[in-house]
């Protein structure tokens, strides 16, 4: 029922987009100085074109939604980072629960391990049901070979954030709840800092608290920040934050929904230079939310390689 209802919503959105474009084209054609016969021929051509486009649009959405996540390789320069070529694998917005289950997680973990990362981070919205209902589906996380860190997304609060965090700890995943850790490498150290999602304040549990996260932090060290929503970067402009890793947007998931995402979030997908000192990378998400449909926003496993020169 969930898959059926969410798929219907996705198809409805896509048909709305096609209908809107069709209406704009017809309205424009009526302004052209053509006779009735010519106008009817143009309308027929529009009808055929838009029906074909609608079918292709829907087909692409389902085909792209069914594909496994692509590997998105990104190079980021942090001049004083202690190790050139250090790799972080980022997973985000997996939305385990209704249609994304254990087999998907097994395949993701196998691919992550094959990349031999120095670190794995999960930037929120891992849960789409309560922790108790998807315990078996999340079990493969125990098999990740690299240290793995997690920050909350908005969906963790919808499904019960406290048991979600407890479950992750039992699987060997380390939640950073307004906390930071110093990651020790062979040639030096860097800070890994994580904050709770912005919606936490509204739930009265595990709120966003940047002051707590930075308490005692050595600002002389390069700092990588995990924060679910890209718009949270504005809170970090006065702090040491060389690179923020975020998700939440799904890259729009179904084009042109990304244009609406821009109304709420400053960045939608990819790597951006926020200011002179700060960069932000936004994942398109490893799973999907709602309908199993994606258009021009493929799901991804993000491989971030940090360069210091």
Key attributes of the depicted protein:
Purple Acid Phosphatase, chain A, domain 2; 20% strand; 309 residues; 9 helices; six-stranded mixed sheet; 2 domains
Task: Give a brief outline of the structure.
The protein has nine helices and twelve strands. With 309 residues, the chain is α/β, with parallel strands linked by helices. The radius of gyration is 22 Å and the shape is globular.
What is the tally of helical segments? 9
Number of strands: 12
What percentage of amino acids are in beta strands? Answer: 15-25%
CATH architecture of the largest domain: 4-Layer Sandwich
Rg measurement, Å: 22 Å
* Residue windows where pLDDT falls under 50 for at least 5 positions: none
- Class computed from helices, strands and strand pairing: alpha/beta
Number of domains: 2
* Largest sheet: spatial strand order: 1-12-2-3-4-5
> Which oligomeric state applies?
single chain
Mean pLDDT comes to 92
Distance between the termini: 52 Å
What does the main sheet amount to? 6 strands, mixed
CATH topology of the largest domain: Purple Acid Phosphatase, chain A, domain 2
The secondary-structure element order is: HHEEHEHEHHEEEHHEEHEEE
Helical residue percent?
Answer: 25-40%
CATH superfamily annotation of the largest domain:
Metallo-dependent phosphatases
Global geometry: globular
CATH class of the largest domain: Alpha Beta
